[in-house]
């Protein structure tokens, strides 16, 4: 067991890097590792010490954070003789922040337990902008005493840490939240299509939605990009499709009826098939407008999409 105050961060992608950078900026030394040389260079520029191997990145670190894209990356990173679990010291704490399946997470939990490592499932709700501002929310399950130890570091990139239980509860919670986000995106698409058919001004309807009973933080956050018809991805349609696959798999395994999830998965399949897979997930607007026979959007300046 190590008593050093430095931490390791494995996976320096769009979410991982700003989260790790917040920790470094708060004064905690961060040792980072990523398979991308470009991301390692970016990490060095924000005060993270880049390492060329997992073993050296986690050396001397009691807290090890992970941010990776999917189940395949999760299992490939953590398991096996050269994996992260074997590289970590017994008695250390693994904090895994990704959106992955319950089954894959449970396999990591088993390996961590055998190694004597406390495993915190800690997916986060938010996007890279929230990561940069330190306002992510963490859904956490695993040993509560391990969370209490990690909170002072996690506070650098999260506004809240919700402990939900000692097993896979956090994974269920993250999938449930993302289901609500996907369905909300679909509802916004339909509502805005109705408004256009009714000759309501585009910006006027968006302002109304944001200021109405349905003006959730997500709606408010998307109001200005939608006014600008800016579909630059903070979380892409393809990524949402991946999460919906996880949601459907989880729900089917547990006997939960999720017809809205199935419908939204088909909507995102259509977006991907029509070239909008790398657009932001709110590009459900395109899908509904196309189905509704609406013409290409024309802004006040006369520009068309």
From TrEMBL:
Domain 6-phosphogluconate dehydrogenase NADP-binding: residue ranges: 6-165
PANTHER family associated with the record: 3-HYDROXYISOBUTYRATE DEHYDROGENASE, MITOCHONDRIAL, 3-HYDROXYISOBUTYRATE DEHYDROGENASE-RELATED
Residues forming coiled coils: none
Domain 3-hydroxyisobutyrate dehydrogenase-like NAD-binding per the UniProt entry, residue ranges: 171-286
Lineage: Bacteria, Pseudomonadati, Pseudomonadota, Gammaproteobacteria, Oceanospirillales
Name assigned to this protein: NAD(P)-dependent oxidoreductase
InterPro entries xref list: 6-PGluconate_DH-like_C_sf, 6PGD_dom2, 6PGDH_NADP-bd, HIBADH-like_NADP-bd, HIBADH-related, NAD(P)-bd_dom_sf
Top-level taxon of origin: Bacteria
Keyword set, alphabetical order: NAD, Oxidoreductase
């Amino acid at each position: 067991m190590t008593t050093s105050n430095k931490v390791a961060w494995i996976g320096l992608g769009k979410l991982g890097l700003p989260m790790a950078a917040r920790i470094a900026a708060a004064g905690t030394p961060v040792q980072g590792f990523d398979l991308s040389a470009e991301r390692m260079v970016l990490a060095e520029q924000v005060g993270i010490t880049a390492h060329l191997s997992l073993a050296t990145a986690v050396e001397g670190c009691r807290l090890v954070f992970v941010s990776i894209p999917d189940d395949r990356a999760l299992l490939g990173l953590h398991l096996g003789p050269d994996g992260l679990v074997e590289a970590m010291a017994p008695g250390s704490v693994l904090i895994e922040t990704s959106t992955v399946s319950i089954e894959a997470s449970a396999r990591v939990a088993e390996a961590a337990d055998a190694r004597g490592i406390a495993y915190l499932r800690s997916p986060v709700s938010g996007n890279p902008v929230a990561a940069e501002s330190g306002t992510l929310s963490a859904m956490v399950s695993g040993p509560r005493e391990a969370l209490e130890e990690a909170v002072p570091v996690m506070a650098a990139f999260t506004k809240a840490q919700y402990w939900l239980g000692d097993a896979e509860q956090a994974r269920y919670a993250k999938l449930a939240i993302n289901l609500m986000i996907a369905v909300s995106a679909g509802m916004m698409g339909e509502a805005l299509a109705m408004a256009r058919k009714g000759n309501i001004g585009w910006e006027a309807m968006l302002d109304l939605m944001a200021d109405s009973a349905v003006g959730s933080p997500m709606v408010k956050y998307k109001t200005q990009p939608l006014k600008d018809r800016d579909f630059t991805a903070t979380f892409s349609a393809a990524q949402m499709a991946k999460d919906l696959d996880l949601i459907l798999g989880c729900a089917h395994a547990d006997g939960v009826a999720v017809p809205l999830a199935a419908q939204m998965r088909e909507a995102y399949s259509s977006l991907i098939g029509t070239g909008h897979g790398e657009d932001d997930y709110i590009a459900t607007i395109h899908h509904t407008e196309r189905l509704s026979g609406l013409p290409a959007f024309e802004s006040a300046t006369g520009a068309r999409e």
